[in-house]
Write a structure and sequence with these properties.
Number of helices: 13
Oligomer: single chain
Distance between the termini: 108 Å
Shape: elongated
Order of helices and strands: HHHHHHHHHHHHH
Strand content: under 5%
Radius of gyration: 26 Å
Largest sheet: none
Helix content: over 70%
């Protein structure tokens, strides 16, 4: 009887050591995954998605149930235009996070890149209706943009207005309204919302460039030149900067 008890005790002790060993190994893997994940974030901030991808592929093997790693991997694939892989990892992140609205919003943005407008609208709608989502106005504006790309200008305006109502100083919603009015041929309203975009966000250079183009069409060369000079001041070597430089030169030569 004593002998049997000793055997049972030994088995229990072995099991405890085994469980402890497995737990330690799992924690070690997670810690290593976190190191690779943080390195990947640094590479993404340094605009190097290729090196970020290399780190994240290691991290996801070590901690496959970490939703933050899944999302970072999805975002990296999205930046590299590997959209089907990005979609896969966004969906993984949603499952692991119990449908985190931030990830719903991210997936919707991916569907914009993929030009899957209805899927984008669906996930932006889910995110915008989640009471825990901090950036509801962004999701609503995203939904407006998807409707805009579907050429449903009435719904696009409705949701743009809703976004502005939620966040009156969200410049992107005003810029989107300028694009909608441009599409329906209302130039006065397009100019109005371009100017309102700039008033809220003076460094919104796309709005300045488009307003400069409209002003040139009205022969308001000096006003247009002011906007073009501002673009060159903030972003001289960007594509928009080179286009502004070309327009400014055409004004000087005329």
């Amino acid at each position: 009887m004593i002998h049997i008890r000793k055997i049972v005790l030994l088995i229990m002790l072995f099991s405890l050591f085994a469980c402890s060993s497995v737990s330690n190994n799992v924690q070690k893997e997670r810690n290593q995954a976190d190191v690779h994940y943080k390195l990947a974030l640094a590479h993404l901030q340094g605009d190097n998605p290729t090196l970020a991808l290399k780190e994240l592929l290691v991290a996801v093997k070590q901690d496959p149930r970490n939703s933050s790693i899944q999302v970072a991997l999805a975002q990296t694939y999205q930046r590299k235009k590997a959209y089907s892989l990005a979609e896969k990892h966004y969906l993984n992140a949603l499952d692991l996070s119990e449908q985190d609205p931030r990830y719903q919003n991210n997936l919707a943005s991916l569907y914009l890149d993929m030009e899957k407008w209805d899927k984008a609208i669906y996930y932006f709608d889910l995110a915008s209706k989640n009471l825990l989502f901090l950036n509801v106005h962004v999701a609503v504006a995203g939904k407006a943009y998807a409707y805009f790309r579907k050429n449903d200008y009435s719904e696009a305006l409705n949701f743009s207005n809703e976004s502005i109502k939620i966040a009156p100083r969200y410049a992107s919603a005003y810029f989107l309204k300028s694009q909608i009015y441009s599409a329906i041929g209302d130039i006065d309203q397009e100019k109005n919302y371009l100017q309102r975009t700039i008033d809220i966000a003076p460094q919104f250079l796309r709005a300045r460039y488009q307003l400069a183009v409209l002003l040139l069409q009205e022969n308001s060369s000096e006003k247009a030149a002011e906007h073009l000079r501002t673009i060159l001041e903030f972003s001289p070597t960007s594509e928009l900067g080179y286009r502004a430089k070309g327009l400014l030169k055409s004004i000087s030569d005329s």
